[in-house]
Amino acid sequence: MPGKLRQISISLLLLLNSCITQFIPQPNESQEFLVVEGLITDQSGPYTIKLSSTLPLGTRSRAKPVTRCNVSITDDLGNRFKFGETDTGTYVSDPAKFTGKTGRFYTLHVNTNNAYNNHNYESYPVEMITVPLIDSLYYEKVKISESFWWSYQPEGCQVYLNTYDPTSQCRYFRWEFIETWEFRLPYTVPNNTCWITSYSDKINIKSTASLAEARILKYPLDFISNQTDRLKVKYSILVNQYSINEDEYNYWDKLQNVSEQVGGLYDMIPAAIASNVYCKDNPDEKVLGYFSVSASTSRRFFIKDYFNGIFNPYTADACEADTIWGDTYIPNLNASVWVIIDNFMPKYKVITYTRACADCTTRGTNQEPSFWKDYK
Description:
Layout: E1 12-13, E2 33-40, E3 48-54, E4 64-65, E5 70-75, E6 80-87, E7 90-93, E8 105-111, E9 120-123, E10 126-127, E11 134-143, E12 155-165, E13 172-184, E14 193-199, E15 204-207, E16 214-224, E17 234-244, H1 246-262, E18 269-270, E19 277-279, E20 287-293, E21 296-303, H2 316-319, E22 322-325, E23 338-344, E24 347-352
Parallel strand pairs: 1-18, 2-20
Antiparallel strand pairs: 2-3, 3-4, 3-7, 5-6, 5-8, 6-7, 8-9, 8-10, 9-19, 11-12, 12-16, 13-14, 13-15, 13-17, 17-21, 22-24, 23-24
C-alpha cells in the first residue's frame, strides 16, 4: 500500500468468535503465511507489490521479505506486465510499459521460485472502477475543552471532504493523505525553519451503496489535535481518493474494526480477514493482505490560521539550559552544547543541551517543498 501503510511491519492475529475464550494454537498453525501488499492505479507508476511472510500466532515480530519471486500482472485483454525486485521483497513495475486503465480487470500472479515453498499465487480479477474528483476540502475549528475567565479555550482542527459521482459508478471510496507542515525554532540559529512530511496511518472508507446517489458530504477525514505543532505556521494536506469495489470495502472495514481493538493499523492482521489472493497449488492455504486496483484522484489543501493553545515543543523550560555572560569559552560546542541566542549588547549567550532546539533538521528538512509557495 502507498504512503505509511507500505512502511508498517505486518504481524498476525488469529481471532475467535469470543474475545474471552482462551486460544490454544494447533500444531499446523505454526506455518508461515504469505502477506501481499499492492496497489495499482490509473496514475503514472511505478506500482509496487510487497511480499513478506510472517507467523500467525499474534506475535509482533517483524515480517520477513519474500525474495526472488516472479511477479506479474495480467489484464482481461491478455497483456502481461512484469515486476522486477528492486529491494528485498519489493517488486516494482516499469512505468514506461504499464499504466492502469479504468474498465480493465487486473490479476496479480506470484511464483515464489523456490523462495517460499515454490508455490503459485494468484488474485481474483479486480476491475479498476472510475473515480470522481474531490469536490472540496475544508476545515472547522473545534473547541477541545471549556475555557475559564482567566484563560483561552484550546482549539483543534477537523478536516472534511465532499465528493460526488453523478454517474454512480463509484459507490465505495477509500482515502489516504500526506501531511506537510512548516515549523520554526524561536531562536536565531542557522537551521531555523524546516518542514515535516507524514503519511496517514488510519483507514478512511465510505460506502454510498445504500444511498440514492453517490454523494458524500462533510466526511470527517482527519482531526488535528492541539497537542502537535502542525498548525503553528502553515499546514498542507494532499488527499488521494480511490475507487474500490464492495469486496475491498469489506476487507478494509473488517481491518478497521480490528485495528481499533489492537491499537493500530497493521499492528496485527487477523487471519480471519480474507485476502483476494489465494494459493493455486493449495487453496486451503491462508494468504494475508490485499491486492488493490483503484482509479485515483488527488487534491491539495492548505491551512494557515491561528488556533488557540497549539503545543509548543520549544519553550524556554525545554530548551534554555543556561545563560553565559561575556565572551566565556564554551566547551563541547556543537557536540553536546549549542548556542541558541547570541546577543552582543550586552554580551551574553544562551545555550541548550537539546540539539532539536538549535537545529530544526533533527525533526525535518530545511528544503522547502516545491508546492509550498502555491499558497501564500
